[in-house]
Amino acid sequence: MRTGRLAGRPTTQYTAGRMTAPTAPTLDLDGHALPVRIRRSARAGRLSLRLAADGDGVVLVLPAGIAVAEGLRFARSRHDWLRRRLAALPPRVPFADGAVVPVLGVGHRLRHRPEARRGVWLEGDEIHVSGGSEHLARRVADFLRARALREASTRAHAAARRLERVPRRIAVRDTTSRWASCTAAGDLAFSWRLVLAPEPVFDYVVAHEVAHLAEMNHGPVFWRLVASLVADVAAPRDWLRRHGPALHRYG
């Protein structure tokens, strides 16, 4: 298959009289099939293509009125750009014995302790994981999610009190399109991967969403509220822009 060729046009398939979901297209890049996630946007003024945050696919944004076939031709024309972007991605760090995983920006080495019966625990600069090796990755992920929820809840409630607001519900997810969100009802959600980032970055994202409890926009008043909750806004935003993609390479 020629480099840059798109395979698997979206087609609807029928099995035993039932209509199945369309087959997702892929972009063949040097023998590696990259899934193409197609998104339509009424606000987009032009076609755009970007790597998915986890590096495991590409996102093709189609403006209104643009056919899927035209979008796929555009994606095919960008294979040189995609090759460079993929080459620039940091390596994946699987949750495995000996790997170094940051917790609030501080590196911790994973230590498999099959003889122990303590689940997962921090000890100095190490994360100890008991049980069978087949469960290690899942247990580390669960541990980090729980830590992320605890950190997000503590920080969000503390920041909200300063604005005399109360979040309705706080959750953590594994989102790739945004680091956090706030609904009009006051529900806050954060990427669990923020627990891997330095504390000032986590604090900034929490402050950003808590400020939305008072101002559901990004106007001057909103940014003054954010600045009242954290010592620095610019540096954490810059850190996320430069290093945020690497957080999606863990696990």
What does this structure look like?
By secondary structure, the chain is of the alpha+beta class. The protein has two domains: 83 residues, no CATH class; 148 residues, 2-Layer Sandwich (Zincin-like), CATH 3.30.2010. The chain has six helices and 14 strands. The strands form four sheets. The protein has a five-stranded mixed β-sheet with strand order 1-4-5-7-6. Strands 8-9-11-10 form a four-stranded mixed β-sheet, with helices on one face. Helix 4 crosses helix 5. It is flat and about 55 Å long.
What's the quick description here?
The chain is α+β, with helices and mostly antiparallel strands and 251 residues long. The chain has helices at 68-77, 79-88, 136-162, 199-211, 220-229, 234-247; strands at residues 6-7, 14-15, 18-19, 26-29, 32-41, 48-51, 58-63, 100-103, 106-113, 120-123, 126-130, 169-173, 180-182, 187-191. The chain has two domains: 6-88, no CATH class; 100-247, Zincin-like.
CATH architectural name of the largest domain: 2-Layer Sandwich
* Rg (CA only): 21 Å
What number of structural domains do the residues give? 2
How large a portion of the residues is in β-strands, by DSSP E?
Answer: 25-35%
What is the CA–CA distance across the termini? 31 Å
Uncertain segments are 1-21
> What is the N-to-C order of secondary-structure elements (H for helix, E for strand)?
EEEEEEEHHEEEEHEEEHHH
CATH superfamily of the largest domain: Metalloproteases ("zincins"), catalytic domain
Instruction: Based on Cα principal axes, name the global outline.
Output: flat
CATH fold call of the largest domain: Zincin-like
Helix coverage percent: 25-40%
- Count of helix runs: 6
What is the class of the largest domain in the CATH system? Alpha Beta
Major sheet strand order: 1-4-5-7-6
**Would you tell me the structural class of the helices and strands?**
alpha+beta
Counting DSSP E segments of at least 2 residues, the number of strands comes to 14
Mean pLDDT: 89
Largest sheet: number of strands, sense, barrel closure:
5 strands, mixed
